[in-house]
Design a protein that fits this description.
Layout lengths: L3 H10 L10 E4 L11 H8 L4 E7 L2 E6 L3 E6 L4 E6 L9 E6 L4 E6 L5 E6 L21 H9 L6 H5 L10 H11 L12 H21 L31 E5 L2 E5 L6
The chain binds a DNA duplex (14 and 14 nucleotides) through helix 5.
DNA sequence: ACCCCTGTTCGGCG
DNA sequence: CCGCCGAACAGGGG
């Protein structure tokens, strides 16, 4: 599920727990989502602490607790955050449950491409890097964008849009949406893009990110009917503009859909 | 049964 | 050394 705006939606699911104490921590310590994380430390230190606030950066989230405790969460492919009632008994894929007196904060992830990290310290963890600009912020600007593209001239543009170091929070469907709106073939090598194409790509990247953040709920149903996303999964998917079948291929390691008329 | 998958990392190779 | 690409991770759903 999770790209930029969906991540933001999931982050807010835990908001009801802000200001409340975590009374008990359930986790499946040997699960892959905890790779590299000291789960004993996590459970011991988070227990008894209040959730203070949270933030999202690209596809990552950071939850802050009292007494200098931090929880990082990445949703991977199938992760989700939700609220259950107090004393909720974790189901099979509920790898982390923070039990509060009035509710439980649940992290579920069937495929476990997601990740939970823990940090204890007065300042934010080192893995919470701040050096990649958010797409919707001022510092994601033309110079940054051009510099990043120039470093990946040989890669297909689709693959570059998926690189989190440059396009923070962009995932598979957003990349296809951006390329469709920009009239650029996904397989086109970055060095071959014209300056007009790069200009368009920059504007559409901002547009898709902004518009998604302002409208998106937990799935794509709130996005405009005219967007490509509603067509890209079904075999019969057509270009919203030309009503002709979409082309499909694996580019940058991901299934990619595009319109042969819009994009050439 | 078989094939697909909104993500990231790692090893191989050019 | 740089950077691209496919495989691997793990499980559910069509």
């Amino acid at each position: 599920m999770p790209e930029l705006a969906e991540v933001e939606w999931h982050r807010k699911q835990w908001n009801p727990g802000i200001g409340a104490r975590v009374q008990v921590v359930f986790l499946h310590a040997r699960k892959r989502v905890f790779r590299g994380t000291n789960t004993r430390d996590l459970a011991r230190r988070i227990t008894g602490q209040k959730l203070l606030d949270s933030q999202a950066r690209g596809k990552r989230m950071l939850f802050r607790f009292t007494n200098s405790n931090w929880l990082g969460i990445h949703l991977g492919m199938t992760g989700s955050l939700r609220i259950e009632g107090p004393e909720y008994a974790p189901a099979k894929h509920d790898h982390l449950v923070l039990g509060q007196s009035s509710r439980s904060l649940v992290f579920r992830d069937a495929r476990q491409f997601g990740r939970v990290q823990f940090h204890h310290g007065s300042s934010p963890p080192s893995w919470w890097r701040a050096d990649v600009p958010e797409i919707v912020e001022r510092d994601f600007n033309r110079p940054f964008f051009e510099r990043f593209l120039s470093r990946h001239g040989k890669a297909p543009i689709k693959a570059v849009l998926l690189m989190q170091d440059g396009f923070s929070g962009i995932g598979n469907w957003m990349a296809d949406e951006i390329l469709w709106r920009s009239h650029i073939l996904p397989a086109k090598r970055v060095a071959k893009l014209t300056s007009a194409e790069r200009h368009s790509l920059f504007l559409e990247t901002k547009f898709v990110a902004r518009h998604s953040l302002s409208t998106l709920g937990h799935d794509d149903s709130d996005l405009p009917k005219s967007w490509l996303i509603h067509e890209r999964w079904s075999k019969e998917g057509v270009c919203p503009k030309h009503c002709i079948p979409l082309r499909r291929a694996t580019i940058g390691g991901r299934t990619t859909a595009w319109c042969p008329i819009c994009q050439r």
